[in-house]
């Protein structure tokens, strides 16, 4: 059964935006917001990780959410807003995905690609292993050890033998692309120096003087219509890798609301035992964070949220300040990435990391009294 929980139906008039170097103005845009509930029957859904271990099907008819502790996958029917089934994946054995392998994506043929260090295996939706891509054997210099990590693996819609790996080298925090041919077991590598400037916003963390990790910008990636789109949340820009031309291009903006990049520059390193890390994360959270782009096929538009968090003085169990709200902004771009509109959305006080476009609306994960829901932002004609 489909449940509808009304959150708000409020029109917004969006001011016209102007793209850096290109100009151009748009009509006003009206929005309405509502929230729909997912009927899980007598089952309890895994919401502890806010759908961070989930993947959307290529046709956007369903979403699979993985419980990283039990390895149970919950298949959510987005058309009917119900839990359609649970799939138990094994951790060990011939059909095992591994103890710690929790990142996966749904391929164009609806199979699931699980990835981890030296682990790139494809399973059907009955939890049976169907294929080992052996990417670590095709490109052992890049994927044959734990010095580099595959942040995302994309399969071409036009050629299932073509796989693109977006990866990170831990030692110097540099990024790369591997364009892989599964049939001929070959690959080409391309470095991504465009992300070098992100190091300006990175802090190395020490624990009693020894390296203990780092804190810095995130990079989002998505594939749409033969192109892979990358954006770092510290910069108001996007990088486009065209699969057909094998070329990389960049679009950037400097807008009155969101500027061209973050302004807070953190210290190069911090000692964890001093308690200063929470001050750094607070200042970084109060600055702008440009989130991932999503494509609306029905309207031929891209959407992107940005956020500036607000904090109180309460500190949680992780020694971090607790967010008490946020300013959330929505930017609208045409198919050529010209900025059409950009405005604060005052009715949104927080922003989920999980949002996507379905049926001409932006769907955003929401937890309503420990039940799965989606806040939908509709564009009113």
From TrEMBL:
Pfam families assigned: DUF4221
Protein name per UniProt: TolB-like 6-blade propeller-like
Source organism (scientific name): Algoriphagus ornithinivorans
């Amino acid at each position: 059964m489909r449940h509808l929980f009304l959150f708000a139906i409020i029109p917004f008039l969006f001011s016209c935006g102007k793209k850096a170097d290109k100009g151009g103005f748009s009509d006003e845009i009206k929005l309405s917001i509502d929230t729909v509930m997912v009927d899980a029957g007598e089952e309890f859904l895994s919401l502890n990780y806010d759908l961070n271990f989930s993947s959307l099907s290529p046709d956007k008819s369903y979403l699979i959410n993985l419980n990283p502790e039990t390895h149970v996958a919950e298949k959510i029917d987005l058309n009917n807003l119900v839990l359609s089934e649970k799939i138990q994946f094994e951790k060990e054995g011939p059909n095992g995905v591994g103890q710690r392998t929790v990142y996966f994506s749904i391929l164009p043929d609806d199979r699931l690609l699980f990835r981890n260090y030296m682990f790139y295996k494809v399973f059907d939706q009955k939890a049976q292993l169907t294929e080992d891509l052996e990417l670590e054997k095709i490109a052992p210099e890049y994927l044959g050890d734990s010095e580099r990590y595959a942040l995302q693996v994309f399969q071409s819609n036009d050629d299932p033998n073509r796989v693109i790996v977006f990866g990170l080298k831990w030692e110097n925090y540099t990024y790369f692309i591997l364009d892989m041919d599964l049939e001929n077991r070959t690959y080409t590598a391309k470095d991504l120096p465009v992300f070098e400037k992100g190091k300006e916003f990175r802090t190395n963390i020490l624990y009693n003087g020894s390296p203990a990790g780092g804190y810095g910008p995130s990079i989002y990636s998505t594939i749409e219509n033969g192109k892979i789109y990358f954006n770092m949340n510290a910069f108001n820009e996007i990088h486009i890798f065209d699969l057909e031309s094998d070329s990389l291009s960049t679009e950037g903006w400097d807008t009155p609301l969101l500027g061209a990049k973050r302004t807070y520059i953190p210290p190069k390193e911090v000692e964890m035992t001093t308690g200063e890390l929470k001050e750094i994360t607070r200042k970084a959270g109060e600055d702008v964070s440009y989130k991932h782009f999503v494509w609306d096929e029905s309207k031929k538009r891209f959407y992107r949220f940005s956020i500036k968090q607000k904090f109180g003085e309460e500190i949680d169990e992780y020694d971090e300040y607790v967010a008490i709200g946020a300013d959330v902004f929505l930017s609208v771009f045409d198919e050529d990435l010209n900025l059409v509109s950009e405005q604060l959305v005052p009715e949104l006080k927080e922003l989920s990391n999980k949002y996507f476009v379905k049926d001409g609306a932006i769907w955003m994960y929401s937890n309503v009294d420990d039940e799965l829901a989606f806040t939908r932002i509709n564009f009113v004609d």
